[in-house]
Amino acid sequence: MPLVIPLSPDHDAETQKLADFYNETLGFCPNSVLTMQRRPDISKAFINLNKAVMANEGRVTSALKRMIAWVSSNATGCRYCQAHAIRAAERYGAEQEQLDNIWEYRTHPAFSEAERAALDFSLAASQVPNAVDDSIKTRLYEHWNEGEIVEMLGVISLFGYLNRWNDSMGTSIENGAVESGEQYLGKHGWNKGKHI
């Protein structure tokens, strides 16, 4: 049972309107947002930040942003966010071979060197203590410009917030996210954990 029970999707009209964004990304409004709306300024600010971070401004595709989110969530252990990120990656056009082999992104041929650099950045930036070093920086700059690196770190930071929120809250995971988690992550032991 979650620390705080989510409110109804129609609890706050402004949040509800902004949350239409999630019908595209996930197919439902996440329980995390429904919990945040107990303080509507938080839910509204979060949704607007999420939309800004996930906007396409360059070569960092929507699918890659969601895979960056998955790596970050995997590093922190948030099963709720792992399932949401892999579901959104699927919905935003990640290649089937990448979805099936996300755990092996470092060695699997479905991932380019540019994608590996981005995903390694996500892993290093999500660790405590932070592991971003000159080697990560060099690899990033071989493939990405400064604006694209800012976009990537925006995703990593957004999911740092979500990972803390959802794991601390024990947010109940939605059926659609469970299905995606089981399909793409289950073979490596993914389960709902405390997010029941």
UniProtKB/TrEMBL annotation:
Gene3D superfamilies cross-referenced by the UniProt entry: AhpD-like
Keywords: Oxidoreductase, Peroxidase
Family matches, as InterPro entries: AhpD-like, CMD-like
Origin: domain of life: Bacteria
Residues in Carboxymuconolactone decarboxylase-like domain copies: 40-120
SUPFAM superfamilies to which the protein is assigned, alphabetical: AhpD-like (SSF69118)
Matches recorded under Pfam families: CMD
GO MF, any single term: peroxidase activity
Protein name: Peroxidase-related enzyme
Source organism (scientific name): Meridianimaribacter flavus
